[in-house]
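Response to reviewer comment R2.3. The reviewers asked that we include at least one raw input/output pair. We reproduce the pair for Non-heme manganese-containing catalase here without editing.
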Amino acid sequence: MYHHVKKLMFTVRVDEPDPHFGNMLLEQFGGANGELAAAMQYSIQGLNCEDPERKDLLMDIGTEELSHLEIVGTLARLHLAPTKFDREAAEADPLIAIAGGGGVNLFNSQGNPWTADYLKITGELDVDLRSNIAAEARAKIVYERLINFCDDAGTKDALQFLMTREITHMKAFAAALESMSKPAFSIGRIAPTPGLVNQFFNDSTGSGDHGEIDTRGPWNEGGDWEFMKSPAIQTDADADTKASMESSPPEAAEGVQELLVDELRDILHAEKQLTKALPQMAEAARFTQLRELFEQHLIETENQIERINECFSLLGETARAKPCKGMMGLVEEGQEVMDKGEKKPDAAADLALIGAAQRVEHYEISGYTSARNLASQLRHSAISALLSASLAEEENADQLLNQVARSLMSVARMPAALERTAMEEK
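Raw output as returned:
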């Protein structure tokens, strides 16, 4: 929930109002790089985030940006105040003076209304964090320019504070991105084409009218880089290079479709086993949220079986399951966990159950990933899409189990009486 405290995050003082500068300030109120855009971007990313630690980061900074919006709005209002009664001042911005009565509104410095199109939200945490770092960098530059155009000491103090916080946020987002230990260019899940990913095309060639020349640097030489002619001027002698840029041949490697069918039959048997195991796990769960999670995942598993059957139909194959020994072993382990859990405290029993469930999820994630990659290699886009949908559900289930486990870990550290109370509340 939000709670407004009637105190600015930084005390604002304007000694000499300047309506023209007040108009400039609106860029940071309702502009593309302004505080409202930042507050909405980080808060909505936070609402979508399945990672509890980084969700907290996004919500903390998103909420602070709302406080910054209040500072900028107060600054702009004080600078625009003369437009309420002074004709010459009103001419600095008729839209504000006439339509807005001399107050601020969600417009930028050009009078363009704020829009959600300003927001950069992809749902991929590492990609969103990179967008946020760039957003803070742009905002820092806007504040720097505002400071350079400002003569009022009190206003400059407030802008210096706001500009500094942009760097603070950049540092926090960069640290969060680094803590994910994800390679810098590992974006999404589909790997880039080997070889092609390291080719730098020299697409701007020759000498320009103003002396521009072709240059070399760490962006196109050294390391893994391969400096290439522009595709537009390649000759027949460059046939090997051209071939590397074309689509892969339609003929799949021998045996790939058989591998896909075999993988699907393995997954089908695994999922059918889970439709029997999940109700038992739900019944064994003592934490309400965990029980509901198992019940929801049972519905997802039944839908996943339907998708696998649809994949077989698209391949023209019989939807026949193959005994999945891996899942058999995991289900057997899960039964042992449930049997032993009968003698354990509630939180400990459920944590053990979550461990068994996550081993199952990781097994399924690997199976769906392999099957989807095979389908992509065969250019079966419809099958790839079906498998991707199931893979996303498995990954989400794993994240939800993580969240429940974190809650239970805090409960497990409580004295027995308090643990019972906490479990009842949850």
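The mean pLDDT is 88. The first helix runs from residue 19 to 25. Further pairs are available on request from the corresponding author.
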